């Protein structure tokens, strides 16, 4: 143990003595390690971005979607089906349940210029949690909103701007005409889905819509989503489906299936391909940096051959010489690796602060896996790059070294 510590101490002393040579030889190593760490971290960020994007459409991991339709073509009793889903959710202790619908019928909204038809969507308070709904302004529905005299409404950003972008702090209202006629309080604004998005839509609570209409129009349907959780979904799913089908009756076809991203492994393929491709490039750069380090260390070893001879004449063993020279490279590349990891963290934080990378609701910390792999790669390339110079130092004869 003392020999190991001594060799490590000598290696560090040599590095401090040859600062400029070490700095020049390790710049490429540090940059390569930073690239490897950044690539692995970006892979995790891309996966999180894909997860959140998928959650917005299919719900969080282990979300079960329920839909129902009568096989005889008659209208479905939506209230009875909703009661069955609510009772089943209570039996399985599922806290997050939402109804959702994208209606084919439109609503008429009074703007400053004319009456404008808009798309209508329905969603409960838990919809925002299950689908990670991000708002441009304001908030989503809350459980107590259904009791308001002026029901809450959420507008799309294009519609909100068409209404003059009223400040939500002043509790603005909007007038709907037709079957949904009444005054509604604007509580939130959903952001545009892409640059140039002009879709004008409103979102209402399902109870608000059903209370003001005679029911869903032909062709429209309610769907239910239950966020079960990955640890329970396999056990609950089949039993939930059986109970809902039994409660609905023989004339109702009930579909129960997972809608989340975890049922589609192909959603992670692009992140894996990105990580593999950029990782190979960074690894190649690291290898080239290691070859450059080998050349520099071999040249440096020729200049230090007299030093090696003196140390051998004073009793330094071949093993001690070999270990010292090898550790010089390992310690140097380890320091370069730590600097590279720090550089990767700084660069990624700058990219997030400048909104260059996609905005995430749950930003993962810098992955420990990325730091460990990058540091291991640096130490490994240092050991490989230090082997040949260490071997040359051991093979140098004392008498020849002292003649130089």
From TrEMBL:
TM region positions: 22-43, 279-300, 321-352, 372-394
Cell location: Cell membrane
Keywords, in A-Z order: Cell membrane, Membrane, Transmembrane, Transmembrane helix
Pfam families recorded: FtsX (PF02687), MacB_PCD (PF12704)
InterPro entries: ABC3_permease_C, MacB_PCD, Macrolide_Exporter_MacB
Membrane topology summary: Multi-pass membrane protein
Residues in ABC3 transporter permease C-terminal domain copies: 280-396
Domain MacB-like periplasmic core: 23-214
Source species, domain of life: Bacteria
UniProt family annotation: Belongs to the ABC-4 integral membrane protein family.
Record protein name field: ABC transporter permease
Lineage per the UniProt record: Bacteria, Bacillati, Actinomycetota, Actinomycetes, Micrococcales
């Amino acid at each position: 143990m003392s020999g190991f510590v001594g060799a490590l101490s000598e290696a560090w002393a040599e590095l401090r003595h040859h600062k400029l040579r070490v700095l020049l030889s390790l710049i490429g190593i540090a940059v390569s390690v930073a690239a490897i760490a950044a690539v692995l971290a970006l892979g995790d960020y891309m996966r999180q971005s894909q997860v959140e994007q998928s959650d917005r459409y299919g719900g969080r991991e282990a979300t079960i979607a329920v839909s129902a339709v009568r096989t005889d073509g008659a209208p479905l009793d939506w209230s009875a089906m909703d009661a069955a889903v609510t009772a089943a959710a209570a039996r399985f202790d599922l806290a997050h349940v939402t109804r959702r619908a994208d209606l084919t019928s439109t609503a008429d909204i009074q703007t400053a210029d004319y009456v404008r038809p808009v798309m209508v969507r329905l969603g409960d308070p838990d919809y925002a949690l299950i689908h990670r709904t991000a708002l441009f302004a304001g908030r989503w529905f809350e459980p107590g909103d259904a009791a308001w005299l002026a029901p809450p409404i959420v507008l799309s950003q294009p519609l909100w701007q068409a209404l003059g972008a009223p400040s939500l702090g002043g509790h603005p209202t909007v007038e709907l005409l037709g079957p949904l006629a009444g005054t509604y309080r604007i509580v939130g604004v959903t952001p545009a889905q892409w640059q140039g998005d002009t879709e004008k839509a409103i979102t209402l609570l399902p109870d608000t819509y059903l209370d003001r209409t005679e029911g869903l129009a032909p062709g429209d349907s309610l769907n239910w989503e239950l966020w079960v959780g990955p640890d329970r979904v396999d056990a609950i799913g089949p039993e939930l489906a059986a109970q809902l089908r039994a409660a609905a009756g023989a004339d109702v076809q009930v579909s129960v299936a997972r809608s989340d991203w975890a049922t589609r492994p192909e959603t992670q393929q692009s992140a894996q391909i990105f990580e593999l491709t950029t990782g190979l490039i960074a690894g190649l750069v690291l290898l080239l940096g290691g070859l450059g380090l080998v050349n520099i260390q071999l040249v440096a070893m020729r200049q230090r051959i007299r030093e090696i001879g003196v140390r051998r004449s004073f009793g330094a063993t071949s093993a001690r010489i070999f270990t010292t020279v090898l550790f010089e490279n390992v310690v140097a590349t380890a320091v370069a690796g730590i600097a590279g990891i720090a550089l990767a963290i700084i660069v990624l934080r700058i990219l997030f602060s400048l909104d260059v990378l996609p905005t995430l609701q749950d930003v993962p910390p810098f992955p420990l896996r990325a730091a460990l792999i990058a540091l291991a790669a640096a130490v490994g390339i240092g050991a490989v790059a230090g082997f040949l110079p260490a071997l040359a130092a051991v093979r140098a004869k004392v008498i020849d070294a002292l003649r130089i």
